[in-house]
Amino acid sequence: TIGASATLVTSGANASNKQAWVMTAVKKEMDGGSDAVVADNLPGQFKHTVTIQPYERDEDSIKNIDDMDDIIVVLELEGGEKIADLYTEGKFIILGFENGLHKEAATWKALDNHGIPTYTFATREGEEEKYSRYVFWVAADTYAATLAALVTLETPGV
């Protein structure tokens, strides 16, 4: 659900038999963002990209990420909640909100990068997003409530 701003998402729901998957990566093992797509004959739009080197090595996680396509990614950024002019807790951003992200590359070599695979998901050409990113923050306006709302998305939709 879009909130008071066009870039604020205040709730989410899974499609039938779809669910959120948590992947763990930190610092330089994950990168996400957007690039402006600028053209004189097109409205300003953005290509979203996420590259991740996940730690998960169990068979279900490997199958899941290998099968992933047309996904929406929620990233937690540290230092997002402002309390008394200090950013103390994470903020959640969404990439691929309008048109999804699609697998662009997947590499894994046992002797490269300590055997950690690298996956890249990106906006397809012609399916660019209207905004550089969206913010996911529930109406209760707290980090804990927002995190709880995301955790509920780990259960498959009906």
* Average of per-residue pLDDT values: 86
Cα(first) to Cα(last) distance is 18 Å
- Tell me about the largest β-sheet: 4 strands, mixed
Low-confidence stretches: none
Task: Give the C-alpha Rg.
Answer: 16 Å
In spatial order, strands of the major sheet run: 1-8-5-4
The SSE string, one letter per element, is EEEHEEEEEH
Percent strand equals: 25-35%
* Residues in helices, as a percent range: 10-25%
> How many helix segments?
2
Count of the separate structural domains:
1
Assembly state here?
Answer: single chain
What would you note in describing this structure?
There is one protein chain. By secondary structure, this protein is mainly beta. The protein has one domain (8-13, 21-152). 12% of the residues lie in helices and 34% in strands. It is built from two helices and eight strands. The chain has helices spanning 59-67, 143-152; strands at residues 8-9, 30-37, 45-52, 73-83, 86-95, 102-107, 118-122, 134-136. The strands form two sheets. It has a four-stranded mixed beta sheet with strand order 1-8-5-4, with no helix packed on it. A four-stranded antiparallel beta sheet has the order 2-3-7-6, with no helix packed on it. A hairpin with a 2-residue loop joins strand 4 (73-83) and strand 5 (86-95). The protein is globular, with a radius of gyration of 16 Å. The two termini are 18 Å apart. The model has no long low-confidence stretch (mean pLDDT 86).
Give a summary of the structure in a few sentences:
It is built from two helices and eight strands, in the order βββαβββββα. With about 160 residues, it is mostly beta strands. The chain is globular.
